[in-house]
Amino acid sequence: MRTRNPPLAREHPIRMTSSRANPQPAAVRPSATEAARPSGLLTDLYELTMAAGYMQTHFDALATFELFARHLPARRNYLVAAGLEQALEFLESVRFTKKEVDFLRANRIFQKIRPEFFSYLSKFHFTGDVWAVPEGTIVFPGEPLLRVSAPIVEAQIVETYLLATLSYQTMIASKAARVCTAAQGRAVVDFGARRGHGAEASLPAARAAVIGGCAGTSNVLAGMEFGLPIYGTQAHSWVMAHDRESEAFASFLDAFPDNSTLLLDTYDVRQALTQILAMGRKPSGVRLDSGDVAKDSRWVRRELDRAGWQDVKIFASGDLDEYRIRELLSRHAAIDAFGVGTALATPGDAPHLNMIYKLVEVERDGRIWEAAKLTRAKATYPGRKQVFRHSKSDGEFRFDRIVLESEPAQGGKPLLVPVMCGGKRVANSGTIAEARERCAAGLAHLPKACRQVSQSAVYPVRYSKALKTMLADVRERVRRSALK
Amino acid sequence: MRTRNPPLAREHPIRMTSSRANPQPAAVRPSATEAARPSGLLTDLYELTMAAGYMQTHFDALATFELFARHLPARRNYLVAAGLEQALEFLESVRFTKKEVDFLRANRIFQKIRPEFFSYLSKFHFTGDVWAVPEGTIVFPGEPLLRVSAPIVEAQIVETYLLATLSYQTMIASKAARVCTAAQGRAVVDFGARRGHGAEASLPAARAAVIGGCAGTSNVLAGMEFGLPIYGTQAHSWVMAHDRESEAFASFLDAFPDNSTLLLDTYDVRQALTQILAMGRKPSGVRLDSGDVAKDSRWVRRELDRAGWQDVKIFASGDLDEYRIRELLSRHAAIDAFGVGTALATPGDAPHLNMIYKLVEVERDGRIWEAAKLTRAKATYPGRKQVFRHSKSDGEFRFDRIVLESEPAQGGKPLLVPVMCGGKRVANSGTIAEARERCAAGLAHLPKACRQVSQSAVYPVRYSKALKTMLADVRERVRRSALK
Fold it and tell me: Is B455 exposed, middle or buried (0-12, 13-18, 19+ CB in 10 A)?
């Protein structure tokens, strides 16, 4: 336990929220847009029982939580941070409607809670400060993607949404980076819409896939909402719906003379291409979705070239992922671009990241103390942290150091930057294109072993001595307090 | 190719949509609720290019598509159908806003498409007929969960959303059924909100988890929207935020004297329980979230009983799934209820179902022909299907038969029922409680080997001779047409 060191506030010129002694947000809320605002009820019940408990027991505190991955899933050497934009939109706009507050009030569990809690919720808005790593940044276990300092009630209520949002997009962006690495510069398009956890989940996924390196998406609404390039022409059903395959191809070329990728594998790839060549009408591309794609693609390329159609692209899809793409290219598949659906939307080799949101500091009645979970195998480091990335002169990353925010820098580049102050954004969080470039630059600077798709490599991440000392101090404090 | 057999329409008294020759829906749309309607753009681009292609080439047809799982993931003996309610809500309300239509019109790929297509979209609504298996029904590969008959343009546009919705909820309900089976009658609560693919994805997941057998969810908004029981009290952060663990417990009991499950493993389980017993204030439950839960739970039970607190429940959570629960119970863990998060929200052992939506029949210019995909290893059966479930006299399922809708019944119970006619619902799709009971009854009637969590067993599903003959006919027709 210690008191805050005043110089810190100057070093990182982000004001602490001034409302912590009395966490009452401004009463004004625009009712017109209320329906579009995310609901404060989109959270685990325990966030709201704890919130009620803090208010009921007059526990006024400013809490700092950090959100990070405890460890990497197997087959991952790094993560690509994504989802910050949606996390900040949530923090800016989360509210409780009257109906939602009434729903809680009527629940048996809240029956002894004083009315002040419910009137607090009806005026709730987030007033905290947030630091975060920009989207597209390469991150490693233990490194906070996000750090929230806010009245403890607020910081608690937003936990569930922040975890889901950042874990999901980070998982997808990280997978996309691997898939695009395997494609060696060929375009990869997100085909994951139908594999989303509900179709709506495919929208942030398309965004994250593009941050991770994808060229675009088949998802039309994602294209409109996020300004992403959209791709797609025909499915097997188009061919199946027509009497004859040749008629199906001819009709599609009639409708889309300048932009038609014809699907070859509804019945038989070679028969399909032979019919297209016999028609003599050049499509912009052809697609292979099943079968021996490496072999078929080489045959298709030869036949296309023989017809003088060197500019007709070959597109491959069908249960592709980074391993399958690497195998196809190692077999000299003649493929210009890949469509990846299932593996991007629900990465089977790492279907969840299990990020955590841990309390690291509490400020109450003018005192500050650091918090840590101490259970075996699940211990976490206390204290507000910063991450410094140290690089070689050519830009290659050497190692990261996780330090207390208050420690003097020892070189390296700080990863966490202020993004929100008193519940308002303090910086534009940047475009998807910028995040995509950041990711590409980060991948280019990763040690080569870490960048590999089928090789495990551990990037060095160190904790400062001050952090280790602080963890030991918390352990000792808890031990002593239990004995009292 | 054949003409429709008139008696069929009598056998299944669902009118075909009358608008197939001119797929123009009614012009009236309620603009007030427009914002809340799902967007027709939430689909893959190729659905819209095909739609444009069909209109551009005057291909007026009534198409029938069937949605089913091609095969089971490893470690699954059955699936629990779920998501129909959301699928039907989508079909009833999907629209294109002016902004969305303009977005498409401005896209280069549509530049040669006639204006009629865009005015069609601006008045789009779904006018088709839908048959489906009720939610909570046990289903197997090849068995259609949903069958859509509609103008081909409509049937195509809704594909992506239907696949995502039914695949996702079916995946979660199927996992929940396994987890609840392993819990042997103990309550299982969905803790998956923070592991959702975005927080919003956790809402249908909570619903599906309850259909599969869960007692409720930690997800408050899901509780309100779907009327599900909600659960939750305190997290590690509550304990960590307080100076002393005993103070944290006492404060929580102050706020929630009748309903407080205290979390024991923030620092040390035995130390925590010792402090609670020393306080002498009885909580309603305690929770273990890490460590040797089997051993700790037996110790906690003994200590609670020794204090005369036989009615204090022990709740377990922390990376649980059906395998871990089975192991805990085999080690005589003293656990009354389980919280399962990650495994329910993103089942690591089967993170996707890869359902497909396949064209099986086309009716055009008064002719009907059956469609099938013929590629090696990905062939599908043509024709409109029904599934009959045959049971023993005690109710145990013996086998399923997939037949053409037009085949005479040979006993058994038909699984597909009409749910939508001409774009309007023809029956209430039932409550979540009914779907949950249907699932429980289905599980009780499954052959015992299929119900096991750690045993592979194949339930017999047969295809009728007529279906096999029809597939051979389609194959021959395609072969001949390619030779012409």
Answer: exposed
Condensed to tens digits (0 to 9), the pLDDT of residues B176-222 reads 999 999 999 999 999 999 999 999 999 999 999 999 999 999 999 99
The answer to whether residue B238 neighbours chain A at the CB level (below 8 Å) is yes
Residues B101-151: pLDDT tens digits? 999 999 999 999 999 999 999 999 999 999 999 999 999 999 999 999 999
Do A109 and B199 lie within an 8 Å CB cutoff? no
Q: Are strands B187-190 and B216-217 parallel, antiparallel or unpaired?
A: parallel
The per-residue DSSP string of B418-481 comes to EEEETTEESS----HHHHHHHHHHHHHHS-HHHH-SS---PPPEEE-HHHHHHHHHHHHHHHHH
Residues of B numbered 297-316 whose beta carbons fall under 8 angstroms of chain A's beta carbons: which are they? none
Q: Nearest CA to CA, how far is A291 from chain B (Å)? A: 7
Rounded to whole angstroms, how far apart are CA atoms A260 and A262? 6
Picking from A46, A57, A258 by the largest number of B CB atoms within 10 A of its own CB, the best residue to mutate is A46
**Phi and psi, residue B21, nearest 5°:** -70, -20
Of B164, B231, B265, the CB nearest to A202: B164
**Exposed/middle/buried for residue B277 (C-beta within 10 Å: 0-12, 13-18, 19+):** middle
Residue type, position A178, single letter: R
Instruction: Please judge whether B108 and A235 are an interchain contact, meaning their C-beta atoms are less than 8 angstroms apart.
Output: no
Q: Do A237 and B359 touch (CB under 8 A)?
A: yes
Contact A52 B255 (CB under 8 A): yes
Percent of chain B past pLDDT 70, that is, above it, reads 92
Side-chain-side CA neighbours of residue A286 (13 Å): 32
Cα A187 to the chain's mean position, in Å? 21
User: Helix, strand, coil proportions of chain B in percent (round to 5)?
Assistant: 40, 20, 40
- What CATH number is given for B174-345 in this structure? 3.20.20.70
Cβ–Cβ under 8 Å, residues B63 and B359: yes
Phi-psi region of A118 (alpha: psi -120 to 50; beta: other; left: phi over 0): alpha
In the block, tokens 């979540």 appear at B432
What pLDDT is attached to residue B322? 98
CA dist., res. B433 & res. B210, Å (int) = 8
Residue A6's contacts (CB-CB under 8 Å, 6 or more residues apart) are none
Dump pLDDT digits (tens) for A342-360: 999 999 999 999 899 999 9
CATH entry, B7-172+350-483, from 3.20.140.10, 3.30.465.10, 3.40.50.720, 3.10.180.10: 3.20.140.10
Domain range list for chain B: 7-172+350-483, 174-345
Count of A–B CB contacts within 8 Å?
Answer: 365
CATH architecture label of A177-345: Alpha-Beta Barrel (3.20)
| B80 touches B137 (CB < 8 A) | yes
SS3 A254: helix
d(CA B155, CA A394): 55
Cα first-last separation, chain B: 17
Contact between A174 and A79 (Cβ < 8 Å): yes
Q: What is the ipTM of this complex?
A: 0.92
Torsion angle of C-alpha atoms B342, B344, B348, B350, degrees rounded to 10: -170
- Tell whether the model's pLDDT for residue B153 goes beyond 70: yes
Q: Which of A413, A363, A368, A367 is nearest to A386 (CA)?
A: A413
Give B327: exposed, middle or buried? Use CB within 10 Å, 0-12, 13-18, 19+: middle
Residue B409 pLDDT class (50, 70, 90 cuts):
confident
Tell me whether domains A7-172+350-483 and A177-345 share a fold. no
B148 CB within 8 Å of a chain A CB: no
Going along B241-347, which residue ranges are E strands? 261-263, 285-288, 313-316, 337-340
